[in-house]
Structures are given as C-alpha cells and as structure tokens.
C-alpha cells in the first residue's frame, strides 16, 4: 500500500478533475488524482473498434462553449465541422419520410405554427433563467412542480407538436421521459446552451468535432500531471474533518488538506464518508439520477447517403432511433452514422438479444437512409448504463421539485470537500464545457481558501 501526502486529492480523472488538478498545480499546490477506471476521461472515451475510430462518449463542440474552446486552443487541438451539406430527413407519425432544410421539421402548417409558438414561448422563459441559479427564476417553484410533459399538454392539444418539442429536451438531452423531469429542469437545460432555439438547431449544438477525438482533452491534461494520476484506484473511504482529508483507495492512501469529488453524483454512494456527509447532501443526492441513452455507431465503406443529397441529419420522435447524424471522421473515406436510442426505447431494446437489438436499430436507421443502412462494416453500441463507474448517460438531473428544493446546495462545499462535474454545472450543463467550468471553480475556491488562511496567519 502506497501512502502519500498532498495539498489536494482529486477523485475522478475526467475533464473536471483533471482541469482542477492542473489549475491547482499552476497555483503551486501539490495534487494526487485517483481514478477508478484503467483510463482517464470519464464520459469522454475515443477508441478504435474493429479498425474504426469511434467517439464512445462525448464528442461535439458548440460555439457557446467558451471554456472547452479555450482548453482546446491551449492544448493545441484542431476542430472540424460536422458534415451537414444536403437535406435532412424527418419521419412523421404515419411513417412518411420528408426531406427538408432548416430547423423546423416538415409537419402540417397548423402543427408548424404551434411548434414555432412553443419555441418562442420557451425562449422567452429561458431568457429569464440564470443557468447557474435557475431556482431563483420567476415562478421557479411552480415550474419545478410540473413535469415538462404536463406543461406541454397544457399548452396545446397537438400531439405531434408536443412530441417534437419534448424530443429536444427529453430524448436528445436529459434522456428521460418528459414526465420524469420538471419544466424548470427543461428550462435549465435550454438556458445552459443559451436558448431553447439553440437546442433545436443541430448546426449550433452539434457544430464541430475534434480531430483525433475529444478524449485528447483529458489525455493531454493527464499527461501534464504525470505520476500524480493514479489509475485503477477507486476510493473506498474518505475521512474528512477540520484537519483535512484522507482518501483510502485500492493500492494507495492520500492524506491532503482538501478534496475535490470530480465524479457523477450517482457514484458518491460508492464512497464511505467518515463521518457521514450532512443530511442535506444525503437527501439531495438521492433526488439526482442519470438518464439513459444508447449511442449507436454504424460505419460503412462510403458515406452513401451523401450520394442521395442527404446531410445525414435525421429526426423522428416516432422512430426507435430518434435522431441520427453523419459522424464520419476527419480525413476518413468511410462513412459513419451515429444514432441515439433514448430512455424508454433504450429500456425496451435491452429486453432483446444483442442480435435482435442490432437488427431493430439498423432497421430504424434504414427508414431514414434506405436499405444500405442495414449493412455496416462496423457496428457498436455505447451503453453507458452498464459502465460500473458511470451508470447512465448523458448526465444526472433532478426529479420533480428537486432543482428548486436542493439547487442552492448543489455546488456547496462540505468542510474540506469540493464537488465538480458536468452534472453540477449551470452554463455547459451536461457537457465537457460544464465539466471544465466546474473544475476551474473548485480550484479557484481552494486557492482562495489557501490565500485567506495565509493572510490570517500573517496578520
């Protein structure tokens, strides 16, 4: 058993933890990063599967993600635009496929009118929401007490309009059924991206990718830390108090003055805290849960959909695969499609055998792109729900009433323990950008506390 002493111990080697560690080292503090997995990156994972490079985890960069863009620039990483030339496709409730351009799906005129009105109404509501303090928004308590599904039902009787609006929050972002989260939680999701219109605009929210994969961010950050990063070291016990912390992990014990918990809140209960965390935290963490989505990768010898004048962008709240995109890698002659099967649909396909699930998903893709979609040369499913150290995707969100009730305590330190991950972010919520922001915030708080102690000692 290795036993070391550092100024700060960081639990979790994702983007948040590694950002915090690097910022702390820049400030002159010593760190140790403990990671349960055999790799760094957390929910960022770029791997080669059957000869194809796949982004198993997060991958996109949007123009509002300042913290991520700054980090990419600082690390010298290049980006490229997602392929988007040509028509998108939409499948309606009756199974009819329509090609279209623009942001609004090709629905009947009366439904389009309702969709536009709902987007405008949501944009106006989102404009009043500070993503870092959504619980302070007008009518926050009431909005947190009503599900997004019920709110939509109160706005319109048009089922197709409701399904399409819900798709952008429920299926595409929170990856939970719209009855399972509040309207305030939906507004936070939109506010974190700047507006509801941004979530509707795939060309904005899914703008660019990183040449070589987004996992390079944590890989390069970890490289700078060298031996301060310890893999295969899940923390089992964290002792904490006024005199500091002791993290007991597999193979290593770290004594430190402060700690950063840089992992998803659904994993906090994997650690035994001595003494136990305060009641408020215990309750709060029980009201946060992960969504569930399968990210499907299908690689073909060529991007055949482009020959049909298609961009690869496809949507339908009525399809098993509710959205899909051209995900071909930079400089690769092969074509890659990425599709998403979310929440209840994801539950359903895991009742099937792997072969049946693959056939069902590829059948859904073929409804968008034609029969060639059924025959990829590489097929892979990113199933984060089965990952021991993740347990869902993309991130955690509150149940009804939880955001208003517990939001003010979400990022509050407990003694010498700071919390940092994308699940806790306001701006950049659920994204790598938010993880970086939270890592910076945790480091700033620790450095500020150190300066205060030094000033007191010198007084």
TrEMBL record:
InterPro entries assigned to the protein according to its UniProt record, in alphabetical order: Amino_oxidase (IPR002937), FAD/NAD-bd_sf (IPR036188), Flavin_amine_oxidase (IPR001613), Flavin_MAO (IPR050703)
Domain Amine oxidase, chain residue ranges per copy: 16-446
Domain of life: Bacteria
The EC number(s) this enzyme carries: 1.-.-.-
Cofactor: FAD
Keywords: Oxidoreductase
Oxidoreductase in keyword set: yes
Keyword Metal-binding: no
Any GO molecular function: oxidoreductase activity
PANTHER family for this protein: AMINE OXIDASE (PTHR43563), AMINE OXIDASE [FLAVIN-CONTAINING] B (PTHR43563:SF1)
Similarity comment text for this entry: Belongs to the flavin monoamine oxidase family.
Protein name: NAD(P)/FAD-dependent oxidoreductase
The organism of origin for this protein: Microbacterium rhizosphaerae
